[in-house]
Amino acid sequence: FLAIAGDGTVTFTCHRSEMGQGVRTGLMLIVADELEADWSKLRITQAPGDEEKYGNQDTDGSRTTRHHFLAMRRIGGAARMMLESAAAAQWGVPVAEVKASNHEVLHQKSGRKIGYGALAEAASSLTRNERMRATPSGSTSPALASACSGSRPEARAPSTTLSRLSTVLTLPGQTAWARMLERASDCSTHI
């Protein structure tokens, strides 16, 4: 569900399909909040259909956020704790002395800080026991909530020809290209 690249880009793989309710942004926001991530360094990808890897991928009933809220918080919390553990190990300090904030891990006593990208490889090598200690913080970051308010990354693509259409209906005398352009112009004013 979550990957952190060396440049600090965090990629969230959404296992549910976007059907207009904003689940891709909503689930990513939940993970990002626990991760203490910088919204501008996040990207969303759509998971391929793979129930063995991602679990149930049904998109029905408008219940994705309710059903996956705690799991997404745990994913974000586990990643944050892994990054904090990696930074503490690198600096030789107790993990209790470091704190993730705004896409960096900080050691307040020394003033040292390091970005998520620089810690990603070390964090990914932690043992399963170290990863399983993660619990959601229970707090919500007002900075993150305001940073993405009104911004739904998944909303633009379905309303333009950048998104693959599941069905293209061609009426007599109308080409498929004209139909896609008509669809894009109808929706782009609503974003």
Protein described:
It is a single chain. With 191 residues, the protein is an alpha+beta fold. It is 43% helix and 13% strand. The chain contains eight helices and six strands. The chain has helices spanning 23-35, 51-54, 64-91, 116-124, 128-132, 142-147, 153-156, 176-188, and strands spanning 2-4, 10-14, 42-46, 98-101, 104-107, 112-115. Strands 1-2-3 form a three-stranded mixed β-sheet. α1 (23-35) links the parallel β2 and β3. α3 crosses α4 (116-124). The longest helix has 28 residues, at 64-91. It is elongated and about 70 Å long. The model is unreliable at 142-149, 154-169 and 176-191 (pLDDT under 50).
Helix share bin: 40-55%
Lateral strand order in the biggest sheet: 1-2-3
State the shape: elongated
Low-pLDDT residue spans: 142-149, 154-169, 176-191
Helix count, DSSP H or I runs of 4 or more residues: 8
Arithmetic mean pLDDT: 74
Distance from first to last alpha carbon: 27 Å
Rg over alpha carbons: 20 Å
The largest sheet, given as strand count, sense and whether it forms a barrel, is:
3 strands, mixed
